[in-house]
Design goal:
Largest sheet: 7 strands, mixed
Mean pLDDT: 95
Low-confidence stretches: none
Number of domains: 1
CATH superfamily: Gcn5-related N-acetyltransferase (GNAT)
Oligomer: single chain
Shape: globular
Distance between the termini: 36 Å
Order of helices and strands: EHHEEEHEHEE
Number of strands: 7
Strand content: 25-35%
Length: about 150
Amino acid sequence: MAIEIAVESPLQDDVRTLVSELNEALMALTPREFCHHLTVEQMADGSTTVFVAREDGQAVGCGALKRHGDGIGEVKRMYTRPSHRGRRIGSLIVEQIEALARREELGQLVLETGDRHPAAWTVYERAGFRRCGPILDYPDTQWSVFYEKKLA
């Protein structure tokens, strides 16, 4: 079946469940104090746009663009359900995030991901992101890997 990606509210029950699965997956690999989660309520604020991937109406993946000052957008809350991995859903979501950032004339996308997420690194590197030092106000720890992509 075809995957459809659209901007949606994170406050829907099935999106809340998806984000809960993401949180559990992250906390299984990274100590809680080094997990930098946005809650669904924080994701619903005006600075963040949430993309949800659906197949046959079922939420199977998500990602978000959080806007910061100075033309910087941050890729947040990227997740694809294990049953749907390997289908490039993450790449499709990143493409949507980047397209929105370009329409809004943001100059740079940045992100923080974990040190135990090589599949995520592949998604970002295929999309043209490059590793960099700490971004925004994230601490430089062994648990974090940082990426950036210049858009302008």
